[in-house]
Amino acid sequence: MAESVKDVMTPGVVAVRPDASIVEAAQLMRTQDIGDVVVADGQRVVGVLTDRDITVRAVARGADPLGVSVGSVCTPDPLTLAPDDPVSFAVALMREHAIRRIPVVEGGLPVGLVSLGDLAEARDSGSALADISRARPDRNS
Question: Where in this chain does the record put each CBS domain (predicted)?
Answer without folding.
Answer: 9-66, 74-129
